[in-house]
Design brief:
mainly alpha; single chain; 82% helix
Length: 65
């Protein structure tokens, strides 16, 4: 994973979790489990945006979730 090469701090962890949850949810799951994974991915993205201080990213993630 490229994230190992670009790791800067623990604030990067929610981004990695969101990417993994979203990928697994979209390509390996169907129905309710897929929706649960995508919802958790949206929450992880929101947490990531809050940790880095991105107001626009946080707003867009909240609209999707």
């Amino acid at each position: 994973m490229v994230s190992v090469l670009t790791w800067q701090s623990w604030a990067d962890l929610p981004t990695i979790v969101a990417m993994v949850l979203g990928t697994v949810g979209m390509f390996l799951l169907r129905g309710v489990p897929m929706r649960v994974f995508l919802g958790l991915a949206a929450l992880a993205w929101t947490l990531s945006h809050i940790l880095v201080g991105s107001v626009g990213g946080r707003r867009s993630a909240q609209v999707v979730a």
